[in-house]
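FW: tagging you since you asked about this chain on Friday. Here's the raw sequence from the shared folder, copied in full. Didn't touch anything.
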Amino acid sequence: MITIKTEEEIKKMREAGRITGLILQEVSKMVKPGISAAKLNSFAEERTRELGAIPAFKNYPNPFSFSRYPAALCVSINEEVVHGIPRKGKIIREGDIVSLDFGVKKDGYYGDSALTVGVEPLDERKKKLIKVTEESLYKGIEAAKPGARLSDISNAVQTYVESHGFSVIRDFTGHGIGSSLHEEPQIPNFGPKGEGPILREHMIFAIEPMVAMGTWMVRITTDGWTAVTTDGLPSAHFEHTIVIKEGKPEILTKVN
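HL: got it, structure written out here
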């Protein structure tokens, strides 16, 4: 069931979203050759607690094993699609594309967002992948209007991505979000228009296209968390938490 949020819940999620977006932007500015993923994670966790929130991902249970996610931030590099663990020995280098996925919990409610940063010098194909993935996120957000169907979001993302010669990762989806990090519904980044529940005012979603340069197929590495493309080609990831309010989508995790 998709929950309809109250004004008070939206207010709390707006604050959780603000903190999420702020910290994610701060972390993204630290991405440079030679920095470790662990340092990015340490900053994100310390900053979260400084702002009176709780890291949303740390100790999150793996649905396929008994493990829990060991960090506050996901740092996925190049062919890593999502859930990359920010280990100390994971060093960012020139030419990498780095996806940062992050969330916080504040006053019982969650914010969730992601972005991808390119480390110069970067080849043109990687630049295009990042650009198209970010633009596809906004195509999906634009489709999240009262009276539309849930799959209209999915179709908007897929159509835009594939028109530029890239592929949409199919094993991971966007989702509802609120007092739980992952709520109903799941929001695939592919599918036909006009299917699924009708979108209504005060629904809140995390929309998150993950886009690959080559195949959409992924595998999970031996750490039980990190998803990588099976052909080893790069992928990118963007995400915002949005609320449908006053006839249109409002981004809760965007930094003005």
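FW: The chain has four helices and 15 strands.
HL: agreed, and The chain has a mean pLDDT of 97.
FW: great, closing this out.
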